[in-house]
Amino acid sequence: MQEVKTVTIREIVQTLMIRTHITAADLAREMGWTRQYAAKKVRFETLRVRDLIAYAKYCNCEIAFKDIETGEYFDVMRAGLGDPVHAMRGRVMYRNDKAGALANNFFMDGINKFGADGTAVEYYKAINGKIFRVQYFKDDPKKFLLDLVEKEEVDDFIKKYGDTLDRRAKADEEPEMFDDED
Question: What domains lie within the chain, and their CATH numbers?
Answer without folding.
Answer: 9-66 (1.10.260.40), 77-161 (no CATH)
